[in-house]
Automatic annotation (TrEMBL):
An example molecular function term from Gene Ontology annotations: tripeptide transmembrane transporter activity
Major facilitator superfamily (MFS) profile domain ranges (all copies): 28-496
Location in the cell: Cell membrane; Membrane
Pfam family, one: PTR2
Species name: Staphylococcus muscae
Sequence similarity: Belongs to the major facilitator superfamily. Proton-dependent oligopeptide transporter (POT/PTR) (TC 2.A.17) family.
Chief localisation class: membrane
Descriptive protein name: Di-tripeptide ABC transporter
GO-annotated cellular components: plasma membrane
Keyword terms of this UniProt record: Cell membrane, Membrane, Transmembrane, Transmembrane helix, Transport
Gene Ontology biological process terms, A to Z: tripeptide transmembrane transport
InterPro entries linked to this entry: Dipep/tripep_permease, MFS_dom, MFS_trans_sf, MFS_Transporters, POT_fam, PTR2_symporter_CS
Amino acid sequence: MSKHYTREEILNSTPRTGFFGHPKGLSTLFFTEFWERFSYYGMKAILAYYIYYSVAKGGFGIDQGVALQIVSMYGALIYMSGVIGGWIADRIIGTRHALFYGGILIMVGHILLSLPNNFTLLLVALLFLIIGTGLLKPNISSTVGLLYEKNDPRMDSAFTIFYMSINLGALISPLIIGWTQINVGFHAGFAIAAVGMFFGLLTYFLTNKKYLGLAGLEVPDPLTKEERAKFIKILSAIAIVVVIVCVSLAMLGQLTIANFANFVTFLGVGLPLFYFVKMLTSKKTADYERKRVYAYIPLFIASVAFWMIQEQGSTVLAQFADTKTQLDLAKVTGGLIDFHIPPAWFQSLNPLFIVAFAPLFSILWVKLGRFNPPTVIKFAIGVLLAGVSYLIMVIPLSAGAELINPFWLVASFLIVTLGELCLSPIGLSTTTKLAPEAFTAQMMSVWFLSNAMAQGINAQMVTVYTAISSNQYFLYSGSIALAIGVLLFVASPFIKNLMQGVK
């Protein structure tokens, strides 16, 4: 049985300052998260290349469409696993144990990737990474909140510092791991990711007891004996069904990547749908709350449309950077700069632009005062910018050049990041404001599932990308996002009315 600690006991057990005026525990979580994101984004920057590069180049030589499909499925399952990881922390082991065990599984996943080529080993490694990230990612953020009193004015600043660790890790790792992949090899790149996660675990192991005290050690809503027995039965039943289905499909020759992609897409669409139906039909949801959930649905759809394009940075645009972009700067600059750009370096553009522009956007919203656009309009702008980021790619592709100037790709990443700064930071706060009281945590799961749904759909879209011309793909995808953005603008008065006073 988990011991219960009061808020006061938790706060008294941690050093209250020592890290830029914040509790010292924030430094433990900052560096743990930095190294976890370092390992995640560095590995993801070269994952598609590892799968589709020829065996001679150190890869598996798998079809490009299938390779991009695997990366999309990996992204979708990462976001779905976070919902389960949050539940395990709340009901079984607490956030501190969840994030530590998660970190160990992530490190093991990267170590497996650093071993010689074996496709089964690759899939096992990705499974370790999915489970590990599901345990670590949601629970490290929750632990940050435990270091502060509910009304502590430093809370917003703490999360800003914490999110900086994410973007710094995401910015630096593709540069280091991308260069290593080109100059040494894939396995050396994955080994660096493993070492990164090891540093994160080491930081946590050496400082957590001293700096985090009692924060995150208790299990907030532990399973009762009856619930535990029921949980074991359900888990066993699911495991048996999965084994039977897999064996049956294998015997029929249907245990394929394509069929698994269909299953992930079905899950990605089905889970959010299940949550919406549950909230809208529940007797715990008041009438005014029901209207707010209806208002949230178009915002959710806009979010899915946005993340579909944003998350293709590590699939479609990663492949485009590798195969259709002029990476030899000597040819771009007329011999002025003699350097070959590692294609994985383009993965650093999104975090670079976030670090550069996030402070400007936060100042902009404040300066606009009463002219600050409402949530619906910000979402619409975000989706419109995502559409534009794809439509501008049509310009160089229409010129007929075999390889396009890399600055077009930089412009595409910049525009979609500006869209992200309009939509992503306010997504979380809007979700909490529109959530029915009885479903606050589950509504937060729905927000993260918008990304899972986007990547689940992308598991189908990326095969379309390799089947039609790049020109057509960017034109159609960009136009659909643009249409959704315009529809959101048009419907904004109706949606604002349903929001029942939430801005």
